[in-house]
Design a protein that fits this description.
Blueprint lengths: L2 H10 L8 E3 L6 E5 L2 E11 L11 H18 L3 E12 L4 H17 L4 E9 L4 E9 L16 E5 L8 E2 L6 E2 H4 L4 H11 L3 E6 L4 H11 L2 E6 L7 H10 L3 H7 L6 E5 L8 E2 L2 E11 L7 E4 L19
Parallel strand pairs: 4-5, 11-15
Antiparallel strand pairs: 1-2, 2-3, 3-6, 4-6, 7-12, 7-14, 8-9, 10-12, 11-14, 13-14
Bound molecules: magnesium ion (MG).
Magnesium ion binds next to helix 2.
Length: 319
């Protein structure tokens, strides 16, 4: 069983969902019309030893991430969070203090992003920790920005610095591990949507790696994304990862998951500064018409010629 096959099976049923569905499955959040207004919803699950290890993360970090990961999807729509509910299956070996550390972090994080935790459910079982968080959001006058709105000739941008998200930068005790400590880009997404208006065509948050996620934008618009290697904003963690495994930092910027930055496409006439709200904004490529059977993402080397990135394991093809 592959996640991708399962999702495609679900998306095939989209046309039968009914007129109150404003955003069907396949975007960063689903949408429902409530009294004519869009309510957005997303759900995400964190499973111990699949998405995190308690050898390398504190319970407070796991609780924080359970919330921020969902909030990154809210950012991808340029929406504002409304509130959250959470369900947890906790190991029967845990103490009350452990459960408190987890839920205190979830509540505090949700509160910090003005997304109150308004309910939930807990079960105790003879298995690992599993946390499921659902967040509701609303467009609040902007967007929602969907994944499929890119047009031929659009510029492709990313926020922040990419790659090496699983590596701790700055020493093992006081360092930052991006996949645990990242800030969901809610304010930045709002600022981009406000500044660009209808010139902001499509957006996604980077959870699976730029190569894969830019592929989602391209395929949903039936286009090909061209990404220029020498424009990729590889961060210090990507350099560090490269020193360990010998790969160039750009491969980490392109292939590593869990950046939780934004990738978006704009009208080519829209101008953006190099930085907004203290976060780098980098143009990494463009969208162009796809040839049949061509990859949804084509990576161009410094000489402008396509590079073979087969070792990064993408499976996306244009329709
Ligand atoms: Mg997402």
């Amino acid at each position: 069983m592959r996640e991708r096959d399962l999702l495609e099976h679900i998306y095939r049923q989209n046309p039968t969902l009914g007129e109150l569905v404003s955003i069907p499955p396949g975007d960063d959040m689903g949408g429902l019309l409530l009294d004519g207004r869009n309510v957005l919803v997303t759900v995400d699950q964190l499973a111990q030893d699949v998405h995190f290890s308690l050898d390398r993360a504190t319970l407070a970090q796991v609780g924080r991430k359970a919330i921020t990961r969902n909030l990154s999807d809210v950012a991808a729509m340029a929406a504002l969070p409304l509130g959250a509910v959470a369900a947890g299956s906790l190991p029967d070996t845990w103490s009350t203090e452990q459960a408190d550390e987890l839920f205190d972090a979830m509540r505090a994080t949700a509160q910090a992003y003005r997304c109150p935790l308004v309910g939930g459910d807990i079960s105790i079982w003879h298995g690992p920790l599993i946390l499921t968080v659902t967040i509701l959001a609303h467009p609040a006058g902007l967007g929602p920005i969907l994944r499929g709105g890119s047009k031929p000739g659009d510029h492709v941008y990313v926020t922040g610095r990419l790659g090496g998200s699983l590596h701790t930068v700055g020493g093992p005790t006081r360092g930052r591990t991006h996949h645990l400590d990242f800030e969901p880009r809610i304010d930045l997404a709002r600022a981009l949507a406000e500044r660009l208006g209808p010139g902001l065509h499509a957006m996604i948050d980077l959870s699976d790696g730029l190569g894969v996620d830019a592929g989602h934008l391209a395929r949903m618009a039936r286009l090909t994304a061209e990404i220029a290697v020498d424009r990729l904003p590889a961060g210090p963690a990507a350099e560090q990862a490269g020193r360990i495994d010998g790969l160039p930092a750009w491969k980490h910027a392109l292939g590593d998951g869990e950046d939780y930055e934004l990738c978006f496409t704009t009208d080519p006439h829209a101008a953006l500064p190099d930085e907004m709200l203290g976060v780098p904004i980098t143009r990494v490529g463009r969208m162009r018409p796809a040839s049949p059977g061509e990859a949804a993402v084509v990576v161009l080397g410094p000489d402008g010629k396509p590079l073979d990135v087969g070792d990064l394991g993408w499976e996306h093809r244009s329709p």
